[in-house]
Structure formats: C-alpha cells, structure tokens
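#lab-general

N.A. 3:47 PM
ok so I finally got the sequence cleaned up, no stray characters, all 332 residues accounted for. can someone with queue access submit it? mine expired

B.Y. 3:52 PM
send it over

N.A. 3:53 PM
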Amino acid sequence: MRIGLVGVGRIGVFHAATLKALPAVDQLVVADADTGRAELVAKDQDVEFAPDVEALLASGLDGFVIAAATTAHADLIAAGVAAGVPTFCEKPVAIDLAETLRVVKLVEGSDVPVHIGFQRRFDAGYQAAAAQVRSGELGFIHHIRANTNDAFPPAKEYIPTSGGFFRDCTVHDFDIIRYVTGREVVSVFATGANRGESFFSDYGDVDAAAALLTLDDNTFVAVSGTRYNAAGHDVRMEILGSLGSVAVGLDEHTALRSAEAGVTFPGGPSHPTFMDRFRPAYVAELTAFTEVVAGTREVPCTVRDAYQAFRTADACELSRRENRVVALDEIA
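B.Y. 4:20 PM
back already:
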C-alpha cells in the first residue's frame, strides 16, 4: 500500500522509519510545512517527497498519517476525510475541546476511518492488564495509580501550543484508564505546581500535577506526573483489585531504586524518552493502522475516544484553576 506522512519532526521521522519497515507498506511519501526538511528526510529515508499536503493527498494514497504540529491536526484530519483516505493522527485531535467535537461530528458523519494515536493501547503490559481486569481475574477494582514522569522538560517553544500539562501529558493516562477498565470518569479533583523553569508559569502551565478521578463504578484513580524525573522516563500503572493486583511498567527498566538494604531490583538502565519506552507499541499501532487501511480491522482508537480523554483533561485543568471537584457533566 501507498502511505502518505505529513510532519517530519521528531515523532514524524520516527514514524517514517517505522512505516517504511512495515511489510504492508510498499511506498511512503512525506511532506512538511518546511519543504526543505521534508526533502532532507525523504532523501535520508529513501522515500518519496511531496511539496505540500494537497500534492500528497492527490498522489494516490491508500492511507494518510498525520504527525504535524497540534494546531494543524483538525484541518489535516478534515483534509484526509474530504479526500476519502483512511487517516491516522497523533493525539490530540485538536487544540481545544470545541474543535475536537467539530472533528468528531465530521468524522462520524463520514465513512472514512480515522485512527487516533494513543500508543499505550498497543503496549503489551497494558493489554495484559486490560484482559485481567475485564475477565474478572482481579475481582472488583477499588484503586488505580497511574503516572507519567518525563525525564526532562520539553523546549520552551513547545509549551504555548501544548495545551497544558493535563491535555498534553496526562491525557495518555486518561485514555489508558478508559481502555483498561472499560469505565468512564465521572468527576475529578486536580492540582498542579511549577517547581522548575519559569516559562511554564509564563504560559499558565505547570510542570508537576496530580489528580484524583472517580470512575462510574466508584473506582478511585490517582494520576500524577512531572516534567522533571531525572531518573528516566517513567510510565506505570498499578491496578488494585479485591482478588489480586498487577502493575504495568514495573520491570528492569523502571526508573526507581529501592531504599531497602540489599534490594537490587530494578537493575537495568531506565528509558530516557517516551519513544524508547514505547517503541514496540508504536510499531504495533502503525501496523494496526495498515490493517484499518486494508479493511481487515476496525479503528482501535476513535476520534470519540480521544474526545473523552480530552474532556477529562479539560475537567482537570478547570479543577486546578478553581480548586474544586469538577463533574464531567460540566464539560460539554
């Protein structure tokens, strides 16, 4: 199949290499708002180059992958739908909830499949945990602890268009909580602080945050995260049930050390970035997209799934700003 990719920044270059290596992909064409960069990446990856999105979509694509800046996502999804090309887009769908809902209505009013990139759904650990929860093996779930700790903060230039900590970072936790439990969030209480670089505060953002979520079956979920975890990129989930408990992301690479004497676990090197932590999941995710393109698989993460995660993120941001519990019903 012939796949087009728009956006060749860090994640875009990573996706280009992944797509090129997939057996289902015969041809890959790349484009970027910076045409010079797109040409360089095309040459480096030995793939085709398109001068702009219009030319890319007119080049006979079977599938369209969006890895461009967040502010361009909504319009690019709309362009893919208008062209009738199955589309994959990195999260988020759009920069705010209203625009996200507009895209949801556009996509659900068409017959074009659109797959949103929440790669944790394709991580083997999260998939195994979801299977145990849904089978009843763990009994009823009473508490979940989830964290996303970045080893180092993003560049200052990234923050103004990131959407803020909850929408950019912990939104992955909000999505995977829905995926693993099959439940919906009904209320949140969130807080955050800026302990590092002042540019977070300059844009009304935080670099550390925590939230308590209540699910619709009265499971309590504690979510936390930071931009400053020098021990390494640390993404985990602990699921505590009446009959058993499991942890995702607890292995030799976990970015922790024990304070107990004689304990050497975990002993391996930690993951420096999210791409190292989730490399196999990204490959599985794009493989799944080729199956969506081929018509052999339903979309595994829809625009409405992304909308639900974004609603939780918006509720957390409102809760942080107003220092109160926010019901999801308040978020349109």
